[in-house]
Amino acid sequence: DFEHDQVTLGPGQQKEMAVTVQPATTPFFSVTRLHGFSLTARSTDSSPVAAAAQAQLEERPLFTPATLVFYFVVAAIALALYWVRPQSPTLEMFVSTNEVTLGQPVTVSWRMDHADRVKITAGGRTLYEGVQTPGSATFTSKAGGQIDVTGVAIAKDRSSEPVHALFTVNVPPPAPLPQISEFTATPTSVRVGDSVIFSYKFNDAVTNAVLEPLNQQLNLNADKIQIPVTQEGDKEFTLIATNKDGKAVKKTVKIHARRQSEVNIIAFTVTPKVLTDPGGLVTVSWQLTNAVHAEIEPNPDLDTPEVDAAKGSFQMYVTKSTTFTLTAKDKNNLAVPASTRVEVQKIAIPPPSNTTGASGPDTTPP
């Protein structure tokens, strides 16, 4: 079939024209064959003027033996790939019970196939995420109502459809509110290192009690606890009591702790305490406990005022009223002062008597 039956050409002119060549029939299954054909063009003005060309047509059937073998191999490979294809992950999940009371645990169990890991969520938080299969985990709800446990099996970039398991949490009636009927400290002012006794009482609704900031759990069957004070200054202690529902009540007391030396001055005296002018010899004696260093001023020892830190005495001649000062220090270098005094009194001189006559003027000096 030619595109046109006739075509007009000028001198020296060329034109391209499409022609369609096809066999009359094509077998469904055979080998490839070649068909020869010729094309002839003749001038309409001069019949002897003509031109011809030879060509071949390759006829290809729908299936050749090689093509059939190829398709068979492709089908075999496709079938093999289908059998070894990665399968979608699957998940089975169960809960141990469908109904619990608030605070009771529920066990969630699962089994996954064709998956690398599983993720289980319950009550809005992740319960488990890992590779364990079969596996189980325990969940305790903090709220009542219906809880949705959701699980997903994951394999690389694929995941299973979410699996849901539901259970109901029943909320019991609220417990009575906790009460602190007594919370006191004795004493409220102590020396650092001493202890304070805290007294406390609760109602029957209290199930837990903590003394802060020590985080000290209190024995509900007792009513006192002894706590040492180790820091100087004012410090607040807060008692927090809670019931089984978690409701809390607080009470606070304030303790004042002061730094104080451990030294005890049992005795520090001067004998005698009173002398007459021009003075005399006195004895200074002392007795201390828990002292590691002691000084007395004035002191007959001209080199150092230091004395025995336990006990001792010395004699000293005084000519005027004198105050003796003791300074004792404990192992923490905290000092305790003390003083004692001796008085030197002058002898009183009586005024001269009046020797003039009765009629004369009184010339006694004042």
In short:
The chain is mostly beta strands and 366 residues long. It has one helix at 65-84; strands spanning 33-42, 50-59, 90-95, 99-101, 105-113, 117-122, 125-130, 135-140, 145-155, 158-159, 163-170, 180-186, 189-191, 195-202, 208-212, 216-217, 224-228, 233-242, 248-258, 264-271, 274-276, 280-289, 293-297, 306-307, 311-318, 322-329, 335-345.
What would the keywords be for this entry?
mainly beta; 5-stranded mixed beta sheet; 1 helix; 366 residues
Structure in words:
The protein contains 1 helix and 27 strands. With 366 residues, it is mainly beta. The protein is elongated. It starts with 32 loop residues before the first strand and ends in a 21-residue tail after the last strand.
Strand content: over 45%
Main pleated-sheet profile:
6 strands, mixed
Structural class, from secondary structure content?
mainly beta
Q: How would you sum up the global shape?
A: elongated
Q: Residue-averaged pLDDT, rounded?
A: 87
The rounded distance between the terminal residues' Cα atoms is 173 Å
* Low-confidence residue ranges: none
Number of strands: 27
Helix content: under 10%
Radius of gyration: 59 Å
Series of H and E elements: EEHEEEEEEEEEEEEEEEEEEEEEEEEE
List the helices and strands and how they pair.
Elements: E1 33-42, E2 50-59, H1 65-84, E3 90-95, E4 99-101, E5 105-113, E6 117-122, E7 125-130, E8 135-140, E9 145-155, E10 158-159, E11 163-170, E12 180-186, E13 189-191, E14 195-202, E15 208-212, E16 216-217, E17 224-228, E18 233-242, E19 248-258, E20 264-271, E21 274-276, E22 280-289, E23 293-297, E24 306-307, E25 311-318, E26 322-329, E27 335-345
Parallel strand pairs: 4-11, 13-19, 21-27
Antiparallel strand pairs: 1-2, 3-5, 5-8, 6-7, 6-9, 9-10, 9-11, 12-14, 14-17, 15-16, 15-18, 18-19, 20-22, 22-25, 23-24, 23-26, 26-27
